[in-house]
Amino acid sequence: MSTYLDFVSKFGIGGAHPGGIPLTKEILNKEQISSHSSILDAGCGTGQTAAFLYINYGVNVTGLEINHDMVAKALERMASNQLPISIIQGSIENIPLSDNTFDFVLSESVLAFVNKPKALKEFNRVLNSGGRLIANEMTINQKLKPEEEEEVKQFYGIDSLLTEEEWIVLLKEAGFKEIVIYQADQSIFEENPMTEFNFSQNAGIELFQVMNQHANIILKYQGILSHRIIKCTK
Ligand SMILES: C[S@@+](CC[C@H](N)C(=O)[O-])C[C@H]1O[C@@H](n2cnc3c(N)ncnc32)[C@H](O)[C@@H]1O
Q1: What angle do helix axes 146-156 and 207-220 make, rounded to 10 degrees?
Q2: Closest ligand 1 atom number to CA of residue 136
């Protein structure tokens, strides 16, 4: 796991995606979600979005998460709020669920950290025919110099930094159509008033340094390192 993801999980950051829950709300309000819909929150973290989905739409929500600390924090949230949301530990690269299970797959700042072609094919597989993938993912506005790209990849523990056009190629290869990709109004620099923290007991002081490094990288690559909202249909 990357040091960055270690920081996110030990600090128990809820709403660990650009724009936070306010952007999630804005994006989902444009979708046809009913109380009969089933949604996979892929890489659900502490489960803030999964809980929001159940509370606001009454939908059937499943959260999938690879990190043990995150799974524990998501389970704790669902139990203490008596929310009927299943949290499953597993990888979005190899989803332990059947084909054609969900009307929606939501991925908020998760695809960036995995093997993207593999995960996108898995998202396509678990979606019902006509199901929708909604994602909010790291995207570059232009190519970085090789040493700069290496710095970003190393810090976040990611294997590639994609432009909008490169995302579209991968989405098509995974079988998606009606692809819409756009930049949200919220920038990654805007403060998210709904960010939560749920610290692990073993969250070391050195992780504050990681938080600073993250802020520095975002500032250093301002205008290049960005994010996009991706919407497409199976
Ligand atoms: C930046 S956080 C975003 C969490 C959550 N979606 C949110 O917006 O608050 C990225 C999350 O992806 C999870 N993750 C990374 N690789 C994963 C994988 N292969 N399968 C499932 N989850 C993964 C991490 O553990 C972490 O919780």
Answers
A1: 150
A2: 8
